[in-house]
Amino acid sequence: MASKLIGLADAARLVPDGATLSLGGFTAQRHPMAFVYELIRQRRRDLYLFGHSPGGDWDILLGAGCVKRVELAYEADEAFGTIGPRWRRAVQGGQVEWEDYSNFGMVTRFQAGAMGLPFLPTRTMFGSDVMAKAALTAEQRAADPRTSPQKLAVIESPFQPGEKLILLPAIHTEFCVLHVQKATENGLTRVEGQTFADNIQALCAETVIVTAEEIVPEDELRREPERNFLPPFAVKHVVHVPLGHTLTRSTNIMITIRAS
Amino acid sequence: MVDEDFQAYLEKYVYGVADFAGYLAAVGGSGRLDGLKADPEYGYSPNLKRRRLD
What we know:
The structure holds 2 protein chains of 2 kinds. By secondary structure, chain A is an alpha/beta fold. Chain A has helices spanning about 10-15, 35-40, 55-65, 85-90, 105-115, 130, 140-145, 200-205, 220; strands at about 20-25, 45-50, 65-70, 75, 80-85, 95-100, 120, 155, 165-170, 175-185, 190, 205-215, 235-240. Chain A is about 25% helix and about 25% strand. In chain A, strand 1, helix 2 (about 35-40) and strand 2 form a beta-alpha-beta unit. By secondary structure, chain B is mostly helical. Chain B has a domain at about 1-25. Chain B contains 3 helices and no strands.
């Protein structure tokens, strides 16, 4: 069994300035916070983040000046108050380039990337301002080939004349970083509790880095294979980081801790 | 939270420590962290002393 274990600082160094990145977790839960702190300590800049429901992970990266562009549904974290305070300031102060979709819309975009499709049709966002308006300008979109040339497209169904559908562009990132409860040295991964869209995000990424609360023998996870989350071939690097979700929550490990 | 408070947070808990072990020590160390750990029967800590943040 080939070991994929590396150190946390080495793992963070794999993500260069300007990289596209998605992070696992949901609002105040199971974000790879130790990895986030390490990115900040290494003074990473110009990151391009994709997420459906980030929270304190993004908020701290935004506040530390690590982020240039984001695409998301919302950024909120009840540990800090509803809307992330650094996110709010970054948007109001024009310090971040951003585009927003509905929550389901962002997960649909990740799903398209995970399936290897260029887009997926959906009905989400019809009748809302996240459909009617765009935050990124055409010039901003054209300036970065990793941004879809347009936010979305509306088509008529080829099967039901008159039926309109929204096409949402797939997401592909260079990196996806997840914090999980258990992993083996070769990258077999288990998440306990809610899984959110972590596995879909992972399949959109060229390189998946898993930080794990516990490194366990493969035999242990093979006893209940139906509970495993990502296969080894989907995971490039594994980092052993007990409490690596702190200060967010993680099922069976710990609730939120605030630094104060 | 004002900008200065956030910068002070970064200085103390992120830039001011060498690594994640340093961060865990800065937020209270093993004594405090052990008190937050989940009960394996519940999946969370039922005896946590919650405190108001304001």
